[in-house]
Amino acid sequence: MEEMKAGFFFSGIVALCSAGFLFLSCASSRNSGEQVPYVHITDSKKLNLLPPEYMEGTQDGLQLFEGTFGGHSFTLPVFFHADKGGIFMQILNDFGTGIASISYNGEVSFESAVFPEQFKAEYIIADIQLAFYSFSKVKESLEEISLGFSEETILAETGTVHTVRTVSSGKKAVQIFDRTDGRSINVRNILRGYSYTLTGASDE
Known about the structure:
By secondary structure, the protein is α+β, with helices and mostly antiparallel strands. It is built from three helices and 13 strands, in the order H-E-E-E-E-E-E-E-E-H-H-E-E-E-E-E. An eleven-stranded antiparallel sheet has the order 1-8-7-6-5-4-13-12-11-10-9. A two-stranded antiparallel sheet has the order 2-3. The relative contact order is 0.20.
């Protein structure tokens, strides 16, 4: 089931956080091997990942990766970089040691000393693309598979500016991306049942 595939990454993070990253010594390295990497946005809708050139701006820096999946929560530091050359994310443990890395330059590469090979890093790349890539290009890709995509700018009473992007199937929201003044991004996948926040993002 595609719901299980999308959840592999997050369930693994939860398990590793619960274990404190102790006594884990398995290693994995994987390249997607797909001519065009893809994810299933819904069980029946397959979305091809876009080329890195459609990234808008640059994201770079150490951030806090906080989320929930299956009733569990996790918090991890990550180094995150994305520009028109590609996407790179290194997941760290509490001691600042890298435990997994994800990169994308048209192909998805996933390497880890603790995560098993079946984790679906493509879903992280897809989330980043849906949140930060050119709105018109993402919208075009989603419309090709009969999904909707909208973006609105909201000024909160506190003066905080939110840019909210929504993927929809018919009248139902599938995913919501809430970017706050370029400093953080909240991702909520309603269909798959996970959410997470990257805090510390700053547009250059």
